[in-house]
Write a structure and sequence with these properties.
Pfam families: Phosphorylase. This is Alpha-1,4 glucan phosphorylase. The chain has 33 helices and 26 strands. It is α/β, with parallel strands linked by helices. It has three domains: 3-98 and 115-144, no CATH class; 149-496, 3-Layer(aba) Sandwich (Rossmann fold); 544-834, 3-Layer(aba) Sandwich (Rossmann fold). Strands 3, 6, 9, 10, 13, 14, 15, 16, 19 and 20 form a ten-stranded mixed sheet that branches. Strands 23-22-21-24-25-26 form a six-stranded parallel sheet, sandwiched between helices. Strands 1-2 form a two-stranded antiparallel sheet. β24, α25 and β25 (704-707) form a beta-alpha-beta unit. The structure holds ligand 26V. Ligand 26V binds next to α6.
């Protein structure tokens, strides 16, 4: 029996409590509401108002008139939550009563962004909430601004995880996202004299209304100690005798699908001390020491590591990895699956997707559970394990591939190290069987490296049922360059799944004006079937549509201008092209190349080569955080700010060029910047950017890309067409060839006078008050030591930028290209990525 309610989506069918419950009532339950979830509040403005005021009173303990903005935000979040909870609980129950396979997404990072608008959109309550708050005299904008985004990720990899769980919920695919509830997310970036300064991100200072803590369901996670052999009825077995342990407390978050009544779960673990720990390890009668020990345990989930491209082998990081993976696997087996589930059938119920190598320690952990705890034979356990894991690689940079020194791993997880040795032994035996005693090959394929470290990508590849890269080019390079011996040994194991982004957050929420335009033109099915954007193609030739499109961009620029003004006191000129480069600061991404273009444009004006008045107005927007220990990246940030100060203030420029670098780029700011952009900078050295996902967000919002043939740029260009994309630079094979020949940067600096002048300006102190020493190391690096060959692509880049300038003068043609970018980018929905994972890797079914 279902009760009809007034608005779409969630609330259209409110489950009648108990009506379809497949789960028996708890013993002794007599009240009809004891079994199932209580129904949602009535989805009307009156119903919303009543629930909102109730939450203010009963959850916050305040009246509306005495409330703070935080109280009002909390009450709103709780109210939205109240509408979702019934469907969530109902879904969990239905899933448990089914025998469906679930995707257990294991990721050390989730870069979620703000939740309020997403949850309003998913529940179909946006209009009702706006009207309800207006009736209460509450300013909803003020409450939006109140939400602190959980920055529990570094960049692309963490944001991808957040897009994926959004898509899985929208596609009704059973999924639990597992990760870490860091108390401090990615650092807050400020600038002092143009230099990056990091501040702790205490996102939980005012609490978070979206989380459901379950301290009573904490798990014990052990570390250290040793292993011992024992006799188990004639069979010699190993077991782990750990030395210390901590508690893993689950915090649940709802992940609502887009207006489909599905709510999945994100479960993040927080560490806490346990008593055994206090007493056995540190106690010795010292109360103060024992309390201090608590801090030690809590350290595990304290802070997100802010490096995203150098794996440093820090012990705390390995603790984090094991902590969340062990808790997650145990959670799935002990809590999600029915009691006494036959674990030989685990592959029918779970696929653990490894988001990069960070959760790979889960492989020996599952083996340990199966062999040591469940007494399964090694071979049977290995067969189960191999079917239960799949691995996604997100990089090609050798320094980002994680390796753990065996002494560290053996100290922290001695039994796991033994298991890894055995996995390796059996694997290498199989290699020998196939290829004979080819010692070079054995050395190259050994999970344990010659210098005594565990190569986690190898372990993941040996253990995983599938290994995928994140864009066509990246997957190809992964097979051919990084893991060719494994590709040969495991035919069919390697595959590609090109990344995607959720159109709910990055089009519908971030760009309501464009969304309205699209819906007006082609109807509203596109948000869950993004390929339908193709139907927009004819509108590219419709002058009225293009005008409306241009107005949309202008409106988004004004909105961004207001945001930057309020946030950072920055101003954007109305009539400028907005040229945007937002992403982590890394040499391979080549923010330096962008800077050389800006310096060249500046130099052309001040040297008199061009008249300022003839230069098309451009505002360059940067957003980028540098890893705190990455000196060159921080120096480049300083240089961007320094160039900005000089260019912005030089009267000879007549305001034609402006450089803006708002600090602390995050998801919230991305949602403002991307919809306003005209030009998207995707200029990494070919072969280095695994995919990129920002590139997709820009194209979907109608920016044109200036880019190299790298990562998913390749696929974007193929889809949008060469006429609607500014390609430049060496291809990956050309990069390889130049590197093999010997890259001599000086040659390029001599050949191109513009480049020589730009380097001279930077190196001579023109942007550092005459002090040449400040930025000389950057120039010296580019001239002597640059793995990313910035200078080699300069000439081609400047030519591409000149083409951009020309193209922008023809507004109609530019807008036509922009519309075609939107129309042809439907492929980049994360729904499509999920479909690919489901078909090729997971083989899961939606829960109808
Ligand atoms: C690596 C490390 C190394 C140890 C310290 C902490 C840490 C945290 C994250 C990472 C992973 C970096 C890899 C990464 O983020 N890759 C990006 O993944 C995106 C999603 O697939 C992709 O679009 C980007 O091209 C790729 O750089």
């Amino acid at each position: 029996m279902r009760r009809r309610a007034v608005v779409a989506g969630y609330i259209r069918f409110v489950p009648e409590a108990n009506s379809t419950s497949p789960v028996p009532a708890p013993a002794g339950a007599t009240h009809p509401l004891a079994i199932g979830p209580v129904g949602a509040p009535e989805a009307t403005v009156d119903g919303f108002v009543a629930q909102y005021l109730r939450n203010l009173n009963f959850d916050r303990g305040v009246t509306l008139s005495a409330s703070t903005a935080n109280d009002r935000f909390y009450a709103l979040a709780y109210t939205v939550r109240d509408y979702l909870v019934a469907r969530w609980l109902e879904g969990v129950r239905r899933y448990r009563a089914s025998d469906r396979k679930a995707v257990c997404y294991l990721s050390a990072e989730y870069l979620l962004g703000r939740q309020l608008d997403n949850n309003l959109l998913a529940s179909g309550l946006s209009d009702i909430a706006a009207e309800a708050l207006a009736q209460c005299g509450v300013d909803i904008e003020e409450l939006r601004a109140q939400e602190v985004e959980p920055g529990l990720g570094n960049g692309g990899l963490g944001r991808l995880a957040a897009c994926f769980i959004d898509s899985l919920a929208t596609m009704s695919v059973p999924n639990v996202g597992y990760g870490i509830r860091y108390e401090y997310g990615i650092f807050r970036q400020t600038f002092e004299d143009g230099r990056q300064v990091e501040q702790p991100d205490s996102w939980l200072e005012l609490g978070s209304p979206w989380e459901f803590p379950h301290p009573e369901a904490a798990q014990t996670i052990s570390f250290g100690g040793s292993t011992e052999k024992y006799d188990d009825g004639g069979v010699t077995r190993s077991r782990w005798v750990p030395a210390w342990s901590v508690q893993a407390v689950p915090y649940n978050y709802m992940v609502p699908g887009y207006q489909n009544g599905r709510v999945n779960t994100l479960r993040l673990w927080s560490s806490r001390a346990n008593h055994a720990f206090d007493l056995s390890v540190f106690n010795a009668g010292d109360y103060v020491e024992a309390v201090r020990a608590q801090t030690f345990a809590e350290n595990i989930s304290k802070v997100l590591y802010p490096e995203d491209s150098t794996a440093q082998g820090k012990e705390l990081r390995l603790q984090q990895q094991y902590f969340f993976v062990a808790a997650s696997i145990r959670d799935f087996i002990d809590v999600v699956l029915p009691e006494d589930f036959d674990l030989t059938r685990l592959p029918e119920r779970a696929i653990f997707q490894l988001n990069d190598t960070h959760p790979v320690i889960g492989v020996p952990e599952l083996m340990r559970i199966l062999v040591d705890e469940k007494k399964m034979e090694w071979d049977a356990a290995w067969a189960v394990t191999q079917q239960c894991f799949a691995y996604t690689c997100h990089t090609l940079l050798p320094e980002a591939l994680e390796v753990w020194p065996i002494d560290l791993l053996g100290r922290l997880l001695p039994r796991h190290l033994e298991i890894i040795y055995r996995i390796n032994e059996e694997f290498l035996l199989a290699v020998r069987e196939r290829f004979g005693d080819d010692e070079a090959r054995i050395r190259d394929m050994s999970i344990i490296s010659p210098d005594g470290a565990v190569r986690m990508a190898f372990l993941a590849t040996v253990a995983g049922s599938k290994v995928n890269g994140v864009a066509e080019l990246h997957s190809q390079l992964l097979r051919e360059k990084v893991l060719p011996a494994f590709d040969e040994f495991f035919p069919g194991k390697f595959t590609n799944v090109t990344n995607g982004v959720t159109p709910r957050r990055f089009v519908r929420l971030a760009n309501p004006e464009l969304s309205a335009l699209i819906t007006e033109a082609i109807g509203d099915g596109w948000l869950t079937d993004l390929e339908r954007l193709r139907e927009l193609e004819p509108f590219a030739d419709d002058a009225d549509f293009r005008t409306a499109f241009g107005e949309m961009k202008a409106a988004n620029k004004r909105r961004l201008a207001a945001t930057l003004q309020a946030r950072d006191g920055l101003t954007i000129a109305d009539d400028h092209m907005l040229d945007v480069m937002v992403k982590r600061l890394h040499e391979y991404k080549r923010q330096m190349l962008k800077l050389l273009h800006i310096v060249t444009a500046y130099d052309r004006i001040v040297s008199g080569e061009v008249e300022a008045s003839s230069v098309p107005g451009r505002t360059f927007v940067f957003g980028a955080k540098a890893a705190p220990g990455y000196d060159m990246a921080k120096r480049i940030i300083h240089l961007i700010n320094a160039v900005g100060s000089v260019v912005n203030d030089d009267p000879r420029v007549e305001g034609r060029l402006k450089v803006l670098f708002p600090p602390n780029y995050n998801v919230t700011l991305a949602e403002r910047i991307i919809p306003a952009a005209d030009l998207s900078e995707q200029i990494s050295l070919a072969g280095k950017e695994a995919s990129g996902t920002g590139n997709m967000k820009f194209a979907l919002n109608g920016a044109l890309t200036v880019g190299t043939d790298d990562g998913a740029n390749v696929e974007i260009r193929e889809l949008v067409g060469d006429d609607n994309f500014f390609l430049f630079g060496m291809s990956e094979p050309e990069v390889e060839a130049l590197w093999a020949r010997g890259y001599t940067p000086a040659e390029f600096a001599e050949k191109d006078a513009g480049l020589g002048r730009a380097l001279d300006l930077i190196g001579s102190g023109a942007f550092s008050g005459g002090d040449a020493s400040v930025f000389a190391p950057i120039v010296s690096n580019l001239m002597n030591d640059d793995r990313f060959m910035v200078l080699a692509d300069y000439t081609s880049y400047i030519a591409a930028q000149d083409r951009v300038d020309d193209a922008y003068t023809d507004t109609a043609a530019w807008q036509r290209s922009a519309v075609l970018n939107v129309a042809r980018s439907g492929f980049f929905s994360s729904d499509r990525s999920m479909r690919d994972y489901i078909d090729r890797i997971w083989h899961t079914e939606p829960l109808g």
